[in-house]
Amino acid sequence: MSMSPTRTLPAAAIIALVAPFLSACTGPSIDVSGCDVALTATMETLQAGLTEDGTLRHGRTHERTDDQFFISAEFLPSDKDEDFDGDILTWFTDDPRGSYFLSVDEHARDQSNWAGADFGVSEDGAITSRGCVLVYRGEPESDECEEQHEEFC
C-alpha cells in the first residue's frame, strides 16, 4: 500500500481563508470617539419621560451635525441587578439642553412618552450614538465621572 505525501497549508494561507468568515461574525466596528457624556439636565428630562419603572444610565450624546444630536442611554429596570444588560434607548433633538426629544428606536418609543421620530436607527448618526452606550452596557455606574454628569455616566 502506497501512501501519498501529506500537504500542509502554511499558517498565513489558513488565516487568509478563515479571516473573512470571522470578520463577518464580529460585525463592523463603530467609531465612538465623537461621543460625549450626556448632560445631567438632559438625562433628567429624558428620565422624566420614562413610562416604565427604572433608570437611565450611561447617557451619551453624539452630535451628528451642527444642532442635530442623538442621545442614547441604557434603561435599567428597577427590578434588575446592576450588571443587567438593559435596553438601549435613543432619542434625537436639536437642543440637548432643551425639553423636546423624539424617540428614534422601538425601545425609546415603548418605554418613554417622547413622540416618535419619522426615522429610525438607520438614520446617519443613530447607530454611532447607540455604540457609545454599548461599550458600557451592563456595567455598574462608575465612581469616576466628569463634573456636571455625575448621575448618568
Give an overview in words.
With 153 residues, the chain is of the alpha+beta class. It has helices spanning 11-26, 40-48, 106-111, 126-134; strands spanning 35-37, 54-65, 68-77, 87-93, 102-103. Helix content is 26%, strand content 22%. A 5-stranded antiparallel sheet has the order 1-2-3-4-5, sandwiched between helices. Strand 4 and strand 5 (102-103) form a beta hairpin. The longest helix is centred in the first third of the chain and has 16 residues, at 11-26. 30% of the residues are buried.
Helix content: 25-40%
Number of contiguous helices: 4
Rg, Å, rounded = 21 Å
What would the average pLDDT be, to the nearest integer? Answer: 80
Instruction: Please state roughly what percent of the residues sit in beta strands, choosing from under 5%, 5-15%, 15-25%, 25-35%, 35-45% or over 45%.
Output: 15-25%
The end-to-end span amounts to 71 Å
Identify low-pLDDT runs: 11-27, 143-150
Adjacency order of strands in the biggest sheet: 1-2-3-4-5
Structural class: alpha+beta
* Assembly state (oligomeric): single chain
Describe the protein's topology:
Blueprint: H1 11-26, E1 35-37, H2 40-48, E2 54-65, E3 68-77, E4 87-93, E5 102-103, H3 106-111, H4 126-134
Antiparallel strand pairs: 1-2, 2-3, 3-4, 4-5
